[in-house]
Amino acid sequence: MHESAEPRSVVVAAALELFQAQGYDQTSVEQIARAAGVSRSTFFRQFGGKEDVVFADHEVLLTELRGFLAEGHDDPWAAVCEASERVYAHFAHDPEMARQRYQIVRQVPALREREIITVFRYERLFDEYLRSALPGIDPLDAVGFAALVTAVHNHVLRRLLRETKKVPVSTLQTALVDVRRRYGVGTDAVDSASDDVVVAVFPRSMPVAEITRRLGAELR
Q1: Please, what are the domains in the chain?
Q2: Is the dihedral of CA 25, 29, 34, 35 positive or negative?
Q3: What is the pLDDT of residues 175-194, one digit of tens each?
């Protein structure tokens, strides 16, 4: 077969079409490669197997989010929310392909299990980032916030995948503002002058690490 330089996205699209038309288990790597116009060896250089084709976007997104979070952010809680929004925006950009992938995953037990693992990888990434960005944070606060953001993200994403109408990223953004408020790390900052005296009152629900971060930011 002629070696083609087709991008990964072409292979993913061809695979999803075949999975939908004839079933995941009934589709071979050779059929995917042929439909995408690439050789079998090219397929395996790009993907480890059929499962990896289905979750290819997540691998790219996880790598991108690690880089984004590593840049350093003044407000770590906001950074986690923005990371969630970036993932959602990616799938909302092409909702039809996202819905196609979702239907395939729902039909195959092995893919559903892989999906659970993938969701946990996002949650763990957020958890680890908060622990590194907020020294001294209670581990329960870090894992709790990471889990809540991930759960809310998945709830809104499922609306996009199950409904035919558009569910804009602003829907998730509004939900995440409420997550921050409920978790006690909302954005209530008031502009201050350089000679202001800091008198701080914080909600009881606010994590100690966040109180420390805000006080430090004001006193610097």
Answers
A1: 8-51 (1.10.10.60), 55-219 (1.10.357.10)
A2: positive
A3: 999 999 999 898 764 444 45
